[in-house]
Amino acid sequence: MGNRFRFYVLPFAVIFLIFCSAFRAAVATSTIVLSATCDPRGMIPQGSPFWGHVGFVLEQLVENTPYTPNYSFKTRVGGGDSPAFGEAYCRPFCSPTSCQACLRQLSSDIWRICNSALGARVEYPECWMHYECYSF
C-alpha cells in the first residue's frame, strides 16, 4: 500500500510544485507605480527620429540591465539633434529573470503612464526606468 501511494502521489506533488512555481513567476512583477516624473514640455511628436530612438533605448535597457553588475545600465541612441538617453535599475533582490520581466512591463507601461512625454522616470517596486532627450 505504501509504495502504491508514493507511486501515485509523488508525480502529482511534483506537478503541483512546478505549477505553483510557474504561477509565482508569472505574477511576480508588480506594476504598482511608486513614483512617476513626466516631462511637462509635451509629448514626443509621432514619426520624429526621437520617437524611434526612445524605442531602441527602452529595448536596450530591457535586454542589458539584468546582466550588468548591480543591475544598472545606461545607454544612448541616435545623434544630431534627436539623441535619446536612458537608464534602468533593478533592486538587488531580483533575479535576472524577474528584473527583465519588470523592465519589459515597464518599457511598455511608461508610454501610457507619462503619455509619451519627452522625458520620463517611472518606478515599480522591483525596477525603475528613465529616458530623456538630454544627457543626465
TrEMBL record:
Source species, domain of life: Eukaryota
Keyword terms: Antibiotic, Antimicrobial, Disulfide bond, Fungicide, Lectin, Mannose-binding, Plant defense, Signal
GO biological process entries: defense response to bacterium; defense response to fungus; killing of cells of another organism
PROSITE patterns, per database record: GNK2
Signal sequence range: 1-28
Molecular function, one GO term: D-mannose binding
InterPro entries associated with the record: Cell2Cell_Antifungal (IPR051378), GNK2 (IPR002902), GNK2_sf (IPR038408)
Domain Gnk2-homologous span(s) in chain numbering: 32-136
Name of this chain's protein: Gnk2-homologous domain-containing protein
